[in-house]
Specification:
- This protein is mostly beta strands.
- The protein has 5 helices and 38 strands.
């Protein structure tokens, strides 16, 4: 199945035999294997892109013949003239013969010059003090840059050093400040002519005692002589951006300008969430970091020890890449989720509920270090799973749904297999279209609104299970001593289930959507317009579906309990934004038939 056919199937549902989910997955644009590959060696990281004056993409990346952190790690560039369809032969900005050069981030100026900043082990420090054991040498040394004046085809013969003043965290590192232990994943940002770039300094080797700092330059965009470019390290003083309450792991700081003198920065932790800090004076001072929330005072945004990435679009909207997973290790990076942000009058970004953006069918694969590309009203995301870097076109309607989520109140009709909104307090048996449960369009969704007053665990709310045990059932259950809705799915041979978060259900009328995305291998639940995140009970609010599942078609007549007020079934996994629009539509509309 081609990608174009996959899109057409989503747009125009028709009846097919039981689908081959592997064929669906092989055509799913969210599957990272379907992205356009960016050339590199065995290891590749941080594939970041700028669009040059000719409209071509210039990608810089960290690569090497070995694994991450091994000798020979260096940085390269490659150019695409057709939006990632083809790439030029990579150019070594620094050679693989060393010293190690890592974590390249690019910036293009209004005049067309492209700068690339990176960590360079200029003094060739390969051991800790008083030790002969070789160590990773990709996060200490100098911060340097080269530049290109020919659209990224070649780079300056000379490298230039960015001065980074020594602070308290440097004096705690193994070299006592004589060597700086640091790195950056932040693509430089511009606000009012000033360039800002966040870095992470470390006080302990390796990857411990981290804090954020910001390099600022007021003349980089206008000064052609690299020796005359001035840099300043912020915040002022000896302490970086850090809150001891968030633990030792505070790293991979990246920022976005939010207008005026304001900047917002996020970073990863090992607490199951990301940290956020704000500056209102161009980075001179920063607020004490705190766990990031969807809204001021609202729910914490879950993320493991993985890079959360902020983006600001040309239209002034915001995007946040993360993993909607509260693990505390380096795992949990698959799938990748994205939220849309809009700026409040208080200068704080409000974030939407997340959408699943990219996945790999293998849960062990880790997807990270993205970049956003905008061109001609279209959007792309780059990512790496450490051995392959790719670029993926993002459907603009997905992003618009995120940015409009706060006001969506329309009913999704694409893939609707059953809709009953005037169920009158008696058991009902509505007909179900035969495409529901076939997985032809990658999965299915079950939506219901029910009054749970007076009913207990074990009560079936909707059921399509046939005599062979194949179909779908949603019932009321109990988890962590609290009521939950539970979906059970069976193809007659394999069965699986998932529950809403404990505590998510209100006391009386509740709206729930179960999105069974077999292409991505993920089941999600959205309760009363909120995407479940696991709360305090579970690491995340989504679960894994079996990869070898067949059709879940059951009876073509559902049994719906008297407590259910409305039900919709879809022959595809609907988006989170669509589920939220459906929820709001039931709050405002009278039942319609």
């Amino acid at each position: 199945m081609t990608k174009s056919l996959f899109f057409s199937l989503l747009a125009t549902p028709v009846l097919f035999a039981t689908a081959d989910i592997n064929a669906i997955r092989a055509a799913d644009p969210r599957n990272i294997a379907n992205g356009r590959r960016i050339p590199a060696l065995n290891y590749v990281d941080q594939p970041y892109v700028v669009v040059n004056a000719q409209g071509h993409w210039v990608c810089v990346a960290t690569t090497g013949k070995g694994l991450e952190g091994q000798p020979g790690q260096h940085i390269i560039s490659t150019v695409s003239e057709n939006q990632g369809g083809d790439w030029s032969e990579p150019v070594a900005i620094e050679p693989d013969t060393g010293p190690e050069a890592s974590w390249a981030t690019p910036l293009i100026t209004p005049g067309g010059r492209i700068y690339v900043f990176y960590v360079f082990n200029g003094e060739e420090v390969v051991t800790l003090p008083n030790s002969e054991r070789r160590i990773r040498s990709d996060s200490h040394g100098w911060y340097v840059f080269r530049y290109s004046d020919d659209g990224g085809k070649s780079w300056s013969a000379q490298r230039y050093r960015v001065p980074i003043r020594t602070t308290a965290v440097d004096r705690r590192n193994p070299w006592r400040g004589e060597v700086c232990h640091f790195w950056s994943i932040d693509k430089p940002k511009v606000q009012d002519g000033t360039v800002y770039l966040a870095i992470t300094k470390l006080g302990k080797f390796f990857m411990d005692d981290g804090e954020g700092w910001v390099i600022a330059s007021q003349n980089l965009l206008t000064e052609n002589d690299p020796d005359k470019i001035a840099f300043n390290l912020l915040p002022e003083g000896d302490q970086g951006i850090k809150n001891p309450a968030l633990g030792s792991v505070q790293e991979e700081f990246n920022l976005v300008p939010t207008g005026g003198n304001a900047l917002s920065a996020v970073f990863r932790t090992a607490t199951g969430t990301m940290g956020v800090s704000y500056s209102r004076d161009n980075g001179v001072n920063w607020s004490k970091p705190e766990p990031m929330t969807y809204t001021p005072g609202g729910r914490v945004i879950k993320n493991p020890r993985a890079c959360p990435k902020l983006f600001k679009t040309a239209g002034g909207k915001y995007l946040l890449w993360y993993h909607h997973h509260g693990g505390k290790s380096w795992s949990g990076r698959n799938p990748a989720f994205i939220s849309g942000g809009t700026l409040g009058e208080d200068g704080i970004i409000r974030w939407s509920e997340p959408e699943l953006l990219l996945f790999d069918p293998n849960p062990a694969i880790r997807i990270s270090y993205p970049d956003l590309i905008e061109q001609d009203g279209q959007y792309w995301i780059t990512e790496t799973q450490k051995s392959i870097a790719r670029v993926h076109r993002i459907d603009p309607s997905l992003l618009q749904g995120l940015w409009n989520q706060a006001t969506l109140n329309t009913v999704c009709t694409n893939g609707l297999s059953l809709e009953k909104l005037d169920l009158g307090g008696v058991e009902a048996h509505p007909d179900v279209q035969k495409d529901f449960g076939t997985l032809t369009f990658g999965g299915f969704s079950v939506e219901l609104q029910a009054d749970l007053t007076g009913i207990g665990a074990g009560t079936t709310l909707i059921n399509t299970m046939n005599d062979a045990g194949r179909g779908v059932r949603v019932s009321l259950a109990e988890l962590a001593s609290k009521p939950v809705m539970k979906i059970e799915i069976s193809d007659g041979f394999r069965s699986t289930y998932w529950c809403t978060d404990p505590g998510a259900l209100a006391s009386a009328v509740n709206h729930a959507v179960f999105v069974c995305d077999f292409s991505a291998g993920i089941v999600m639940s959205i309760v009363n317009g909120i995407f479940c995140d696991g709360g305090e009970t579970r690491t995340q609010g989504w679960g894994r579906l079996p990869g070898d599942f067949n059709s879940a078609t059951g009876n073509y007549q559902a049994t719906v309990a008297p407590s259910v007020k409305a039900v919709r079934l879809y022959n595809r996994p609907i988006r989170v934004s669509e589920a939220i629009g459906n929820f709001r539509s039931l709050q405002r509309e009278q039942p319609r038939q």
